[in-house]
Amino acid sequence: MRVRLYRQNGSRQFQRVVLDRFPAVLGSSDDAEHIGDALDGHHCEMAIEDDTLRVRDLESMGGTFVNDQKVCEAPLLPGDRLRLGEVEFVISYERLTVQRPRDILYHG
Predict the structure, then answer these.
(1) pLDDT at 36 over 90
(2) 15 CB contacts (<8 Å, ≥6 apart)?
(3) Residue 50 carries which DSSP code?
(4) pLDDT digits (tens, 9 = 90+) for 45-74
(5) Span 5-24, pLDDT tens digits
(6) Which residues contact 6 (CB under 8 A, 6 or more apart)?
(7) Domain interval for residue 59
(8) In this structure, what CATH number is given to the domain that contains residue 61?
(9) Domain total for the chain?
(10) Is 59 left (phi over 0), alpha (psi -120 to 50) or beta?
């Protein structure tokens, strides 16, 4: 599966990050998929489970949010907004099945 994360940088410019190896750790560290300096070194992890992309917060300081809800772990569907601290992306990928994803685990 190939996942694209789109971030708007200004009025008409977009940053695109392409992920095609999973699990993938996102953050600012050299050993992570570097998607921004404002993130924790190992901010979150993305993995594929039952043909659904999932995100898991790695106890980040800035938090992981899906569609403005702070989560510990959650499915990511195409069109969802993923915010890591103050950095926001829109998720894009093609699902091969129409299975309902597992529940979201919220920070309590």
Answers:
(1) no
(2) 6, 7, 8, 9
(3) T
(4) 999 988 889 999 999 999 999 999 999 999
(5) 998 766 666 788 899 999 99
(6) 14, 15, 16, 89, 90, 92
(7) 3-106
(8) 2.60.200.20
(9) 1
(10) left
